[in-house]
Design a protein that fits this description.
Layout (H helix, E strand, L loop, with lengths): L10 E5 L3 H13 L3 E5 L2 H11 L3 E4 L8 H10 L8 E5 L4 H9 L4 E4 L4 H21 L1
Parallel strand pairs: 1-2, 1-3, 3-4, 4-5
Bound molecules: calcium ion.
Length: 137
């Protein structure tokens, strides 16, 4: 069970090592009413997801210390984090990478440069779906 939290805003964990992209994402997410957490490498991402259980993870693939695909696989393997929706955000546009992303359990996949309104729409959709899942459980 979640601990009582007076702040009802959803928390989005941005996993990204490029400061410019982090700033851009954080700006738009906060403006859309989300709280933002950030990890700049794969290991920190795992720890943050386990400790703080964000409502959704935006996951870059090319990360220091641990590749995004490994991060995704580990998060989706653990009962602690497997229900957190993961949207991969990456410059890799090849079909192989996309398929690998889905193969490791990612819920969605957005390629850079992304359209921020599309990304926000996808985030809202996944948050809604995961809320529906957890209220049925
Ligand atoms: Ca990167």
């Amino acid at each position: 069970m979640k601990s009582p939290n007076t702040d009802a805003r959803k928390v989005i964990l941005i996993v990204e090592d490029e400061p410019d992209v982090v700033r851009l994402l954080a700006f738009h997410l906060q403006r859309a009413g989300y709280r933002v957490a950030h990890a700049s490498d794969g290991l920190t991402a795992i720890n943050q997801a386990f400790d703080h259980k964000p409502d959704l993870v935006l996951l870059d693939l090319m990360l220091p210390k641990l590749h995004g695909l490994e991060v995704c696989r580990l998060l989706k393997q653990s009962p602690v984090s497997r229900n957190i929706p993961i949207i991969m955000v990456t410059a890799l546009t090849g079909l192989d990478d996309k398929l690998k992303g889905f193969g490791c359990g990612a819920d969605d996949y957005v390629t850079k440069p992304f359209e921020i309104r599309e990304l926000l729409a996808r985030i809202a959709q996944h948050l809604q779906a995961s809320e529906a899942r957890s209220s049925r459980a």
